[in-house]
Amino acid sequence: MEHALLILNGPNLNLLGTRQPEVYGTTTLADIEELCQQKAKTLGVSVTCAQSNHEGALVDLIHDARGQYAGIILNAGAYTHTSIALLDAIASVEIPTIELHLSNVHAREEFRHTSYIAKAALGIICGFGAQGYVLAIDALVAHLNKDT
Ligand code: CA2
Fold first, then answer.
1. Is the pTM of this model over 0.70?
2. What pLDDT score does 146 carry?
3. Ligand 1: which residue has its CA nearest to atom 22?
4. Is 143 in the pocket of ligand 1 (CB under 6 A)?
5. What CATH number has the domain bearing residue 42?
6. Which range marks the domain in which residue 74 is found?
7. How far apart are CA 38 and CA 107, in angstroms?
8. Residues 3, 101, 116, 133: which is the catalytic one?
9. Gyration radius of the chain's alpha carbons
10. Ligand 1 geometric centre to CA of 18 (Å)
C-alpha cells in the first residue's frame, strides 16, 4: 500500500440513502465506503472511512490524521458553510485535503455557496454524487504521486 487516505464524512451523512433521495440519491454511506475500498484497491492505496455528526469530533479526527494519512477527502456536510474550526484544523495538519460534496452546492441555496473549508483545500469536487468520492481518490493519489 503506497498511500493511506482518510475519508471523513460530517453531519447527517449517516442518513444517506434513507431520506431525501431526490437530493442525495439512494446510495447509503456504507455503499460509498465500499465503493471507496474498491477504488483504493485498484490504485494500491488504503482508505479508512469515518463519520461524525459532531464538529469537535471531526476536528479531533483531522488532528489525529497527522502522521497517519497522506491525504484526506472531507465531506464536512453543513459544517462546510459554518466552521472556521474545521478550516483551522485542515490548515494546521498540512495534509492535502479534497473538499467534497455529493450535490452541486452552487446550484442550491445561497448559504451553500460559501465554504470556509475551501481556503485550505487542495481542490473541490461537487455535484457527482457517490462517484465524486471515486473521482476524489483518483485526484488525491495523482496529486500525491506527482513528484515521484
Ligand atoms: O452535497 C453534499 O454532500 C453536502 O455536503 C451535504 C450536506 C449539506 O448540508 C451540504 O450543503 C452539501 C447535508 C448532508 C445531509 O445528508 C442527508 C442525507 C440523507 C437525508 C438527509 C440528509
1. yes
2. 92
3. 12
4. no
5. 3.40.50.9100
6. 4-145
7. 30
8. 101
9. 14
10. 12
**Amino acid code (one letter) for 144:** L
For ligand 1, pick from 28, 32, 101, 126 the residue to mutate: most ligand atoms within 8 Å of CB.
101
User: Which tens digit of pLDDT belongs to each residue from 127-144?
Assistant: 999 999 999 999 999 999
Q: Pick the range with the lowest mean pLDDT from 11-25, 28-42, 59-73.
A: 11-25
pLDDT tens digits, 90-109:
999 999 999 999 999 999 99
Alpha carbons 1 and 7: distance in angstroms, whole number: 16
Q: Count up the domains in the chain and report the number.
A: 1
Rounded to an integer, what distance in angstroms lies between the CA atom of residue 136 and that of residue 51? Answer: 17
pLDDT at 83 over 70: yes
- C-alpha to C-alpha distance for 58 and 52, rounded to whole angstroms: 6
If one counts every other C-beta atom within 10 angstroms of the C-beta of residue 139, the result is 18
